[in-house]
Amino acid sequence: MKHVIIGTAGHIDHGKTTLIRAITGRNTDRLKEEQERGISIELGFTYFDLPSGQRAGIIDVPGHEKFIKNMLAGVIGIDIVILVVAADESIMPQTLEHLHILDLLGIKKGFIVLTKADLVDDEWIDMVEEEVKEEVVGTFLENSPIIRASSTTKMGIDKIINLIDKYTTELKDRDVDDMPRLPVDRVFSISGFGTVVTGTLLSGKFKIGDEVQVFPGNKKARIRTLQVHDKDADIAYGGQRVAANLAGLKKEDVDRGDTIAPVDSMSDSMMLDVKLKLLKSIDRYIDNRTRLRLYIGTKEVLCRIVLLDREEIGPGEEAYAQLRLEEEVVAKRGDKFIIRFYSPMFTIGGGEVLEPNPKKKKRFDDKAIKELEIKEMGSSADIIENIIEEKSKEFPTTKEIAVFTAMLEENVKNEVNKLIEENKLISFSLTKDLHIIHINYFNKIKDEILETLNKFHIKYPLRAGMQKEEIRNRFLKNAKPRVADAFIELLIQNEYLEQKMENICIKGFEIKLNENQLKIKEDILNSLNKSPYQPPRREDLDSIIGAKKDEIEEVFVSLVNNEDIIKLSEEVYLSKNAYDIALEKLKEYLVDNGSISIGDYRDLLNTNRKVALALLEYFDQVKITKRDKDIRVLNQ
């Protein structure tokens, strides 16, 4: 079954509410003040069943200029518009503003109803119809049907219902697998039940028990009950008018303008990148950094417009802009919005969100403009690729990309997999998370690391490579250490790099000693092996070996890096041969005896306490042994 929302629009007192009552048999004026004054102040909602069996929701928006904010909150999610024009008055200022707003919001289907047709003669209503046709030229209502109606005599009511039914069958189904979003247009509290929010569910579906979050912000709740068109429901689908009873929220925790969505599915933002279009009918230009009122979803927020490719924008013109907001909002790429002057308040234009979570952009930046062009014209895959390229240095996960794009993570994964197959993205896993980077970023960082290591190997030919930590800090400082390590491991797996202990070198790099250095190496190892468990201190080697101090240091460091010498502590170094024998003797002893003390190990190796302790602490560190008070046991 399709889920359709019908909306009325038009000037105050042109008969919108009365027309809805004639169509549905229900009154949408719900405030006492509305009943007394005969005008709609707040949004009115009801529903009716179509001849085809479909059930349509219908929204009655206020016609008075003072309540345009309420009107804007109501038109979000409308599928079909009825533009109401009183036959005895014709087109009025608020009719035109409503028409412009609906056109800017991208609504595609609608028709015109000339109400109060029983109050005028044929000649007059013919003239009104011609006026209306002229005014809607260039809008989505150009060439749309015009029905003459009377809510009093019921003239034209059946035609209206049948036309709504026809349009309903022509509408595409909403994507119920998309992420659910419910912009809140009303909040109230019911004694014994708690907080209830209402709105038009834009997409996806909510069911009882779903965990949700109030955006902007981090208030979380659970859907206790749902109503669709005043009837209890287990599931609400995109395109339906929904009332959700939220457990865990107070009435003051949520306001009109907030959005209800799955937990952690969206990201609050103080900026929006947009494509902006001004109405042809306005009579002034908008300068860069003009303060405006933004209406997006059901929210009103003040902002300043930063024009990215010009100093001003005029009537009927389009431009890329960044809206810098005075309050946080949440949005999705493709969301429509309206802008009005700060004061005096009247509608000047609207547009489409291209990037809901942008970074601050410089003006007249060709690269930034090109990226916005991609976001405007590109497919979902293009958008995802572009965002990943922007954010690669942060090594985003598929979940984070889903938040940036306000897409379901499953849909993001599907697009990412295709882009990986096309060799546009690189991925690597870390625990449960899949991290994604663009191939351009991968090649850039890989080339920078290789170039730096090549220079390092030339400058320090006896060193095994750069410390891994230095590579992390220099090239991967925006990534968490474990993510940076996983990226380095990716370069190792792809045979660009090698790791030797904590050192990273170019794949295939080998330390090559000259004749003098080979002699120093031999002397160092001989000195250590002479009394393998009574080794000389590092500083004593300078006097034992007849060579320059800096030459000895360079060779000694290379032997440690290559693991020819094992550094047990700052004061104790053993040759690799002595270390291997000490380890073998330890394991044999523990197999036979179960545990070993420092004194036992000292006697086993015929060494001193300092060397025995350094060995045992090193074995603890590398998880070969485990300390239990004063003894060691094998670490199972």
From TrEMBL:
Pfam families: Beta-barrel_SelB, GTP_EFTU, GTP_EFTU_D2, WHD_2nd_SelB, WHD_3rd_SelB
Keywords: Cytoplasm, Elongation factor, GTP-binding, Nucleotide-binding, Protein biosynthesis
Annotated ranges, domain Tr-type G: 1-172
GO molecular function per UniProt: GTP binding; GTPase activity; RNA binding; translation elongation factor activity
Principal subcellular localization: cytoplasm
InterPro entries linked to this entry: Beta-barrel_SelB (IPR057335), EF-Tu_GTPase (IPR050055), EFTu-like_2 (IPR004161), Elong_fac_SelB-wing-hlx_typ-2 (IPR015190), G_TR_CS (IPR031157), P-loop_NTPase (IPR027417), SelB_WHD4 (IPR015191), Small_GTP-bd (IPR005225)
Any single GO CC term annotated in Swiss-Prot or TrEMBL for this entry: cytoplasm
Localization of this protein: Cytoplasm
PROSITE patterns hit by this protein: G_TR_1, G_TR_2
Highest taxon above the source species: Bacteria
Gene Ontology BP annotations: selenocysteine incorporation
Chain segments annotated as transmembrane: none
Functional description taken from the UniProt entry: Translation factor necessary for the incorporation of selenocysteine into proteins. It probably replaces EF-Tu for the insertion of selenocysteine directed by the UGA codon. SelB binds GTP and GDP.
Annotated PANTHER family: ELONGATION FACTOR TU, MITOCHONDRIAL, ELONGATION FACTOR TU-RELATED
Protein name per the record: Selenocysteine-specific elongation factor
Lineage: Bacteria, Bacillati, Bacillota, Tissierellia, Tissierellales
